[in-house]
Amino acid sequence: MAWLSALFIGVCMVVIAGSASAILYFLFGTGLGDATIVGTAILVALYLVNMQVARTRDRNSTQRQVDMVSRGVVQINQEVQNLENRLSAVENGFPARARDEIEPVFVEVEVLGTLVKQMAEAVADLETRVTEMPALMNARAGGGYVPPQPGLAPPPMALTNGHAASSSAQQAYNTGEGWRDPGAALWGAGSGSEDPALRDAVKRAVEASRIDLYLQPIVTLPQRQVRYYEALTRLRTEDDEVLLPIHTVPIAESLGVMPTVDNVMLLRSVQVLRRLASRNKTMGLFCNISPLTLADEKFFPGFMDYMDKNRQLAELIILEFTQAGVEAMGPLEFETLSALADLGFRFSIDQITDMGADFRSLSRRGFVHAKIEADRLLGRAPAVAGDIHPHDFADLLVRYGIELVADHIETEAQVLEILEFGIGFGQGFLFSPPRPVRADVLQGGPIPATTDRRRAAV
């Protein structure tokens, strides 16, 4: 069809040129040669015009085809990009979904493994105690005293139906009353803080620096991985009998030696923290100190100078105060807290009984952790809650930037209930009782790479 149209146009151009020459020759009397030249010129002009029109038409057609191809390429690129996004979503989403589905199984397996391990430890300790029972009974029958073996941590609690079952032991140790073998004597078990002999024993223990450091882990929930340790102090007599902190703390405060005890505890905690940092640079250490120590002019300036040179460790130490102690603080103590916060220290409030306290103000002063007993949180112990429901307490603290730790956890049932409160940290005998720090750690000895929970801490 294209050649027919070209032939028709060519014929038309020849006819037009011939007609123009004929008109010039016959009507206007122009010479034959001139008429032929004019006709030829008209034919050439028509040919050039036709050729230009054809080129323009071809160029427009080519441009349309190029535009069509460009649009097709863009569409193909979009489809390829969408396909890549879908493939990436499948590649990235599948492991996450698989991890979300498998992780609860791992957590349950870990819980079962912990229970089996605790049962094995309890059975082993029970066998040991049964083996030693005849000698102990003979010693009691003779009126003698069998001192505890030095360097051994308190034995784990017995298990009942797969759960730790020693509420009195848990409460005693975590509140500072200590825990020992029922067959071993414990100084102050029946004494009060006004006992002259006990006061003299406390004074001599502090003067002789018989101050032991214990550590109890604080674990993440539900993974139960150790995230922090809490440092606790225990005083000993000349006979290596442990003094009860529930009595010794008031005595030490009345005697004015509590800053000395806190000084020893903090400096030893720094030694322990150096060891922990060699294995885990994010491991933190909770240190319980008395508000009286903050106002001590002899101890605290030197301690602050020391920590100013060790700021990298100060950021890993969480100084802990009881809620009653915080409420009793005055301007001097709060000024000291501000100076400590400038050095990088963070703070924790312990033994919470009033959930309606001003935690917003505490957060501004550098408090980043808070501790409350599991039973108090679960409504099994009295608490002045105000308008705060225990179930909303953790969320309230999170809004102020404070992490809540549930302590005094003794049973798996408590853990399951606490998880519903959205609490991420736990502490208690269920995970591990306080363990004494080995002497080689405090003397700069090497740290063996062991995780045996039956041995001393660190």
What does this molecule look like?
The chain has 458 residues and is of the alpha/beta class. It has 16 helices and eleven strands. The strands form two sheets. The chain has an eight-stranded mixed β-barrel. It has a two-stranded antiparallel sheet with strand order 1-2. Strand 1 (159-160) and strand 2 form a beta hairpin. The chain is rod-shaped. Mean pLDDT is 77; it is low at 138-190 and 444-456.
Helix/strand-derived category reads: alpha/beta
Share in β-strands: 5-15%
Helical content class: 55-70%
Question: Given the C-alpha coordinates, what overall shape results?
Answer: rod-shaped
Distance between the termini: 97 Å
The major β-sheet equals: 8 strands, mixed, barrel
Strand order of the largest sheet: 3-4-5-6-7-8-9-10
**Count of alpha and pi helical runs:** 16
User: Rounded to an integer, what's the Rg over CA atoms?
Assistant: 44 Å
Topology pattern, helix = H, strand = E? HHEEHHEEHHEHHHEHHEHEHHEHEEH
| Uncertain parts | 138-190, 444-456
Instruction: Note the quaternary state here.
Output: single chain
Count the E strands: 11
Please state the average pLDDT score. Answer: 77
